[in-house]
Amino acid sequence: MTVFVWLVVAVFGLWAALRLLPWDVDFAWVQLVAFTPTVALLSLIAPILALLLRRWIALAAGLAVCAAFATAVLPRAFPGSNPAASGPPLRVLAANLKVGSVPSDALITLVRDLRPDILALQELTPTAAENLRTAGLGELLPFYAGEARAGVGGSGIYSRHPLQLTDLIDFGGFGQARATVQIPGARVDVVSVHPCAPSQKSRYQCWADGLTALPHPDDTPKILLGDFNATLDHARIRALLATGYQDAADTTASGLTTTWPATPWTFHGLPIPSVTLDHIVVDQSTAVHKFSTHLLPETDHRAVYAEVTFAAK
Questions:
Q1: Which one, 26, 170, 190, 268, has least CB within 10 Å?
Q2: 83 in a domain, yes or no?
Q3: How many CA atoms lie within 13 Å of 160's alpha carbon, on the beta-carbon side?
Q4: Does residue 240 fall inside a structural domain?
Q5: Are 99 and 229 members of one domain?
Q6: Is 105 in the same domain as 163?
Q7: What's the number of domains the chain is made of?
Q8: How confident is the prediction along the chain (313 residues), in pLDDT tens digits per residue?
Q9: What is the pTM of this model?
Q10: Full residue range of the structural domain in which residue 42 is found
C-alpha cells in the first residue's frame, strides 16, 4: 500500500509542478490543464489516503501538493486589488453563439436586461447577423464592426458608441474582430477573442498563435473579451495577464465560476467537469465593479458580463 499511496501523491504532484511551467508542455497538456481546479479538489485524496494508512512522510508530501494547488487556485475565490478609477464607466457583454445557433430574441432579451455598451460575439454567422438585425439589435447597439462567417470563424462587435474596425486577427480561419470604440471621455481598444479550439493536435498552433497575437496593454484602454478557449491555468493566459492585464472574474472573486460546458456534457459516458474558457480581460488600471455569467439557449458557452471604469486621463 505504501507504493500505491506514493503513486497517488506523485500523480497530483506532477500535475501541480507542470502547471507552474511557463510554457505548454505538450498538446495533451493544453487540454488537461484546463481541469486544474477540479484536480486541485481531488488532490485532497492523497493526504487523506496517507493519513488513513499512517504513511506520515507521504502525508506531509500530500499536504505540500495540496498547498501548491491552493496557492494557484484559491485566490480566484477572493477579491483582487482594484484601482480607484474615476474615468468613464462601461458595461460589456460577450457570447459564443455556437455557429449562430442562439435565438436572436434570447440574445436581445439579455441585451435589454443588462444594457451593455459593447457586445462581442463569437461564431457569428451571416444568418445570425441578419436575424439579429431583423430582430432589432441595431436599435439597442447601432454600431457594428466585424466579419460574420459561415461555421465557427465569425466575430463581431456591436456598440452603443461609434467604432471602427482596426484588425481581424485570423489564425486557422478563426477571426478575432478588433475595433476602436469612441466612448464619452475615452477611446477604447476592444477585441472579440476567439482563437481556434485546440481540439486536436493539428489545431494547437493556430490556438497558440491566436492567443499570442492579442494586443498588450499600452496608453489606450483595452478590453479583451470572449471565448479564449483557455483558462487561467494555461501558461499563455498567465503570460498575457503578466503583461499588465487582469481577469474581471478573478478580480471580483468569481474566478472559479465556470463557462463551458454550460450544460452537462459527457465524454465516452463520463461527465466533463465545467471549466472557465470565457473571459473579460482589462488593463490593471481599469476598475472592475461587477462580473456575472448568463445562460443562453442553444449554445455550450455561458455569456460573460462585466461593469468597468477606466482610469481618468
A1: 268
A2: no
A3: 15
A4: yes
A5: yes
A6: yes
A7: 2
A8: 788 999 999 999 999 999 999 998 888 999 999 999 999 999 999 999 999 999 999 999 999 999 999 999 999 999 998 888 778 899 999 999 999 999 999 999 999 999 999 999 999 999 999 999 999 999 999 999 999 999 999 999 999 999 999 999 999 999 999 999 999 989 999 999 999 999 899 999 999 999 999 999 999 999 999 999 999 999 999 999 999 999 999 999 999 999 999 998 888 888 989 999 999 999 999 999 999 999 999 999 999 999 999 987 6
A9: 0.96
A10: 2-77
